[in-house]
Structures are given as C-alpha cells and as structure tokens.
Design a protein that fits this description.
By secondary structure, the protein is α/β, with parallel strands linked by helices. Helices cover about 45% and strands about 15% of the residues.
Length: about 450
C-alpha cells in the first residue's frame, strides 16, 4: 500500500496543483445530460421521475411511491434499534441548541442622523427542499444538519428529497430523523431528476424556492444547469479534511483522524499537515495497521485517497503549515497543536475548525451541534457552513421624517445628476415643490 509522504518545499507545480484541486470532478461533461433530464422532467413530470428511478434506483418503482406515507414513518421507527433512535434524538437536541443561538433579531433599526432611520427585517424563505443523499450509505446525520436549521429558521414549507433503496422505500433512519425535526413531507427521489423536479414542480413534487444539500457529481451538474431557475445553495462536493499537527500531537490520534474523511469515497481528500518529522514518520508507520482494521469496502476508498489526494505533507514550521491550510481552505480542519487557540487566530479559511485532540471530526459530524454541511473544493474561502442564514433572507428598511428628507434631498439630487439619471433627480426636485420645500 502506498501512502503519499510529501515535503511542501519540494513539491513540483504539478503535485501542488493536484493537491489543491483535490478530486473535484469537472462536471461540465455532465451538463448536456443535466439539460436533457431537466427538460424531460419539466415536460413529463412524475412519469419521467418514475422512469429515472426505475433505471437507477428501484426497478419496481411506481408513482405511488414518490412520497413517503405516514405508515412508512411508523415502520421506519419500528425497524430501528432503540439506541439508534436515542442517538438521533440526542444529536438533534445539540444541533437545535446551536442553531437557535444563530438566529438574528427579527428586525432592527438605527438612527443614521436625526430623522433618518435605516434597518433590516429578517424573514424565512417560503419553501425549501433538502437533498439528503444515499449512494455509499444512508445519512440521517445530513437530515439533522439540514432540517434542524430550516425548521429553527421558520421555513413554512420544508420538504426532503432522498433517493430510494432498491425496495423503493426511503432509508429508515433518515425518515426517523426527519420526523424528529418536524418534517413529514419526504419525497423518495434522488439524482438530477430530484433537483429538476423541485425546480419546475411535478404532479406530486412541489416547486420550491431553494434546494440545498450535498450530492453526487450528477446532482452538482443539475444544480449548475438549473441555477437561476432555483436557488441551489452552497457548493458541497467530495469530503475533505486537514489534520494540522505540531510536535506535541499524538501520532496515533492524528493517524486515526486522517482515516475519517478518507473513507467517504475514492474522490475524497485527507491530509496530515505538520512540521514535525517525528509525528509525520510515526503516523506514517501506524497508518497501515489502522487501515487493515477497516472493513474492506471502505478500506479501498482510504487507500485510494491517501495515495492520490491525501497523505502526509511535511512543512518547515507551524506558520508554514497554517499558511498551507489557508491556501487549501479545507472543509474540515482539526487543530492538534500545543496552543490551539493561538493558532486559531491565524486560520482564515476552513469550513469548520475543531480544536484539540478530543474534538475529532466524527463528533462534529454527528452531535457536537455544529453544522456538518460545509463548503468543499476551496469554497471555504468565500462560503460558510449551512446555518439558519441559508433559510432566511434580509430586507433593508428605511424611513425618513420630513427633517430626514430635508437632510438628504440635496445629496440625492446631486448624485442623480452626476450619474445621469434625470428621472431620479426629477423625483426629488418635483417632490420638493409638491411638499413646499425650498
């Protein structure tokens, strides 16, 4: 088994580009297919959705299976072990508490000058679809991370899109998680057809204002094609992580945590970045032993990632490691250094920042309370994790008394004249005549 062991100072331009690019697929080749699928969904509605489900998910799928029924939720809860249900409920409580703290004031004003009031009003988006993938596994945690902030934000219509199992049903744990969050409108559909269905609406699946949630390259292509028809949320692609460590880190722990995001799939990325040759070498030696203990079907993903898009990167100093982190802008970042809160001040770009060796990525993924739907592919430079703000919108509010209007009318007219908008200036000067202002 090969594990990349690289020195930052010795990277070729090609090696650096490969690391920075990750395995993010160029989805441009999928855009013609996204166009065809979207057009078919727009024209044929449910019939096309069902046909795609039969091709890719469940061969006996029917239109009657498009929406999860009340009895499906009952059956799902009965099928789950009590400790799984308890874990879902426990995680939900923490996630809800964190997102409740994010909620902004519904409305605020400030007096810019006497008689001049400016402020904002925050209101929830009217309707949102949450995309909860399946693929390599089932993800009730994604359901919690999407449905919780949507409900806390007060979105009136929250629906879920999730691909069917081979039997045509939704995943049991995902249904229970949706129910715990207060969402009962679950549509059993995935892929490009799911995104197109909520962009246009079908006989069964409603048109909504926004769709958000991680998905495959096919889902990403559909979002790109339908951008402008529907709000498609933040970019969320293959999983990625950096474990930032110094000489005080336990190599056994950093090696463990390097496996976490690597097991998501062959297109994930996972890097240990450290200036300590001792930590790097010992982690390198421990990794094969740990990898051998992972089930074979996940082991292959890890091996591919550590050979191609991850591994160990040795730097010359902690500051150089942090600079690399900021350049890379990882989805998940663990900071296992002697003074993590000092390092925190220097970190600018990361979807989430987990401090200390006892704050591993898995805990944050499930139940710490932070949202684990994060920007990938370097988009952490400009995007944030999913939050209540993804389900809210702000409207500016202004009010002028006569005194306030008098203060601003001259400035308004001068700038309107300068920008050559005569109607703007006319609206001010004529208003002055009408209200008796000289």
């Amino acid at each position: 088994m090969t594990i990349q062991y690289l020195k930052l100072s010795e990277l070729s331009e090609a090696q650096r580009k490969k690391i920075m690019r990750r395995a993010e697929q160029d989805i441009s080749d999928l855009l013609p297919l996204a166009k065809d699928v979207s057009e078919r969904i727009r024209k044929e509605g449910d019939a096309a959705v069902v046909d795609y489900a039969r091709q890719f998910d469940a061969k006996d799928f029917t239109a009657d299976m498009l929406r999860a029924k009340p009895e499906d939720f009952v059956a799902a809860r009965a099928a789950l072990a009590p400790d799984v249900i308890a874990a879902i409920e426990s995680a939900y409580a923490n996630i809800r508490k964190f997102h409740e703290e994010q909620m902004p004031e519904p409305m605020w004003f400030t007096e810019v000058q006497p008689g001049i009031m400016a402020g904002e009003k925050t209101t929830p988006i009217a309707s949102v679809a949450l995309y909860v993938p399946r693929g390599k596994g089932a993800f009730p945690s994604v359901m919690l991370m999407l449905a919780t902030p949507a409900k806390v934000a007060g979105v009136e219509k929250v629906i879920v899109l999730t691909p069917p199992r081979p039997d045509g049903k939704a995943d049991d744990a995902s249904l229970v998680a949706a129910q715990v969050c207060g969402v009962d409108e679950v549509y059993v559909v995935g892929g490009m057809q799911a995104i197109a269905a909520v962009a246009y609406g079908t006989e069964t699946i409603p048109k909504v204002d926004k769709v958000i949630g991680p998905g495959s390259s096919y889902v990403s292509a559909a979002k790109r094609w339908l951008f402008g028809t529907i709000d498609v949320g933040l970019p969320a692609g293959p999983s990625e992580s950096i474990i930032l460590a110094d000489e005080t880190a336990d190599p056994r722990l950093v090696a463990l945590d390097l496996l976490v995001e690597a097991e998501h799939g062959p297109d994930s990325a996972a890097l240990l970045v450290t200036h300590s040759e001792v930590v790097a070498q010992q982690a390198y030696e421990i990794l094969p032993e740990y990898i051998a203990q992972i089930p074979e079907w996940r082991r292959g993903f890890i091996q591919n990632v550590l050979e191609n898009y991850g591994g160990i990167l040795l730097t010359n100093s902690l500051d150089e490691s942090i600079q690399f982190v900021n350049d890379y802008a990882p989805e998940h970042l663990e900071v296992i250094v002697n003074e993590p809160f000092i390092a925190l001040n220097k970190i600018k770009n990361a979807g989430e920042i987990l401090l200390g060796s006892l704050t591993p990525i898995p805990t944050a993924n499930y139940c710490l309370g932070l949202n684990a739907i994060l920007p990938t592919g370097g988009f952490a430079r400009t995007f944030s994790s999913v939050s209540v703000m993804d389900f809210l919108k702000r409207s500016g509010i202004g009010y002028l008394s006569r005194e306030g209007y008098e203060r601003l009318q001259k400035t308004t007219a001068i700038l309107a004249d300068y920008e050559n908008f005569p109607s703007h200036a006319f609206a001010i000067r004529k208003r002055n005549e009408i209200i008796g202002l000289k």
